Amino acid sequence: MNLWQWLLLIYFAVINVIGFVLPPIDKNKAKKDKWRIRERTLFIVSILGGSVAMYISMRIFHHKTKHKRFMIGIPVIIVLQIAAAAAVWYFLLRQ
Question: What is this structure's pTM?
Fold first, then answer.
């Protein structure tokens, strides 16, 4: 693996860890009636590559699972990211 591949791997590891920890943090803050994480922030982290971890975390911790916006939006982001990755591979990376 070259340097760019390592950096990309590290980036996706970090963004997915962030995506995984945000829902339980927000749920805990909601239970304690404290400052909450904005929904926009949750979606931005998902769009930046943490969508799979975010979805898994939402299901594990039962947070935002009654919100259609999240239960439809996050899977749509995942599908779009898979399509984008497939397009990049097909048009740019395949040899």
Answer: 0.91
